Amino acid sequence: MNAVIDVEGLRMRYGSYDVLHDVTFQVQKGEVLALLGPNGAGKSTTIEILEGFRMRSAGRVEVLGVDPAHGDEAWRARLGIVLQSWRDHGKWRVRELLAHLGSFYTAYSSDTVRRPWDPDELVAAVGLTRQAGQKIMRLSGGQRRRLDVAIGIVGRPDLLFLDEPTAGFDPEARYDFHELVRELATIQATTILLTTHDLDEAEKLADRIMILKGGRIMANGTVDELTRQVAADGERRTLEETYLSWVRAAEVAS
Ligand SMILES: Nc1ncnc2c1ncn2[C@@H]1O[C@H](COP(=O)(O)OP(=O)(O)OP(=O)(O)O)[C@@H](O)[C@H]1O
């Protein structure tokens, strides 16, 4: 079976500065991959290349079988992107905006995937039923993030990109969001690539974790595999200890 994301030898250079060096990885259908790494590691650059928003310097990239540099509208309709807060359309109401944005996906509905997501079901899925008739500018920060997620999934994407999805969520919203991600991955077989600085979140949600540092992949595996790799003395490490050991080892080496 073909991978949903297939990246080989990806390089990115801004001016004379290389920010991605020979990055190679795959993500399979229905898999949740958490991309971790310190600020400036190259996470956003990688994701923007996969989304087709940024041209790469070199390497082979396929997303849903297509080179993102040449992705058309039908390809784009199969992607969901949760950006860092939707600031436009403040006067629109929540349900109204979701129905409007969803209408662009009707043309891409198929026998297997009914697009878009019904707006009432969607507001319920992200916990905004009580705010469905409210203007967007009146939403709290956490409610806006829930709306961002709803906007990202309104087209029932095959592949969903989540960039620090729960930043600003209260614990209940976070819990509900984690349930939703699990449901998308397990019931709808949505493939998910998320970036987060929250290691608990990565451990809860991800089937596999990839640690990027200085534009290189330092580690790629399940939590169990990664924690065992650093536990040379046989003692079990937490994901946090494991993460720090990869990131600090890289600092010494670089
Ligand atoms: N448009 C650009 N022009 C030049 N350099 C850039 C540009 N965008 C990003 N960079 C540089 O590329 C490197 C990787 O940045 P990127 O935003 O991909 O990191 P990140 O891992 O997403 O970081 P964060 O966790 O802070 O979001 C950084 O050194 C950054 O300064």
Automatic annotation (TrEMBL):
Chief subcellular location: membrane
Q: Does the keyword Transferase apply?
A: no
| Compartments (UniProt record) | Cell membrane
A Pfam family of the record is: ABC_tran
Gene Ontology molecular function: ATP binding
Is this entry keyworded ATP-binding?
yes
Which CDD domains does this entry report, sorted A to Z?
ABC_DR_subfamily_A
Provide the membrane topology annotation.
Peripheral membrane protein
The UniProt keyword set, sorted, is: Antibiotic resistance, ATP-binding, Nucleotide-binding, Transport
PANTHER family attached to this UniProt entry: ABC TRANSPORTER ATP-BINDING PROTEIN
Q: What is this protein called?
A: ABC transporter ATP-binding protein
**Organism in which the protein naturally occurs:** Tenggerimyces flavus
Q: What is the lineage of its organism?
A: Bacteria, Bacillati, Actinomycetota, Actinomycetes, Propionibacteriales
